[in-house]
Amino acid sequence: VTNGGKTTLAKKLQKHLPNCSVISQDDFFKPQSEIETDTNGFLQYDVLEALNMEKMMSAISRWMESPRHSPVSTDSGSTEEIPILIIEGFLLFNYKPLDALWNRSYFLTIPYEECKRRRSTRVYEPPDVPGYFDGHVWPMYLKHRQEIENITWEIIYLDGTKSEEDLFSQVYEELKQELAKH
């Protein structure tokens, strides 16, 4: 969901996991001149076609070919080189070529009212036009969320109304446990 805390959580995890890299889907939007407009005149940013997913996949492939390695201490006291890649974005689970990559999957949710409030405090380029949230952003979120309901792997749903610290602690502890297994 837009403004759910994805980037904030990813950056905080990256700070605390010394062998961690982040790739953000937001870095792969096509230029505005290539974004379709719907019948209401709304730019269609909340669809896969607005993103250069091939370029994003190339960035992921480059990382996988040569991940950044740094020592990480696990709870067992051993030091291993386990590179971590966090891929964060709003349409990741709707893009089938990514399906085989996930070790852990998290989905942040926030209710409509909170999402609309947070969105109204952000500055976008181009700026949101009146009615854009209700006419495009939220309907696209609902559509894409419904599409992922039939995913066969486990997605852990996180309550984005929790504090940044609570969300970070939950995911960080789960990742530390996962790293300890390797």
From TrEMBL:
Q: Name one GO biological process term.
A: NAD+ metabolic process
The record ties this protein, via InterPro entries, to:
P-loop_NTPase (IPR027417)
Question: Can you cite an annotated GO cellular component?
Answer: cytosol
Gene3D superfamilies per record: P-loop containing nucleotide triphosphate hydrolases
Domain of life from the UniProt record? Eukaryota
Metabolic or biological pathway, per its Swiss-Prot or TrEMBL entry: Cofactor biosynthesis; NAD(+) biosynthesis
Q: What family does this chain come from, according to its entry?
A: Belongs to the uridine kinase family. NRK subfamily.
**Per its record, how is this protein called by name?**
Nicotinamide riboside kinase 1
* Species this protein is from: Mustela putorius furo (European domestic ferret)
Upper classification of the organism: Eukaryota, Metazoa, Chordata, Craniata, Vertebrata
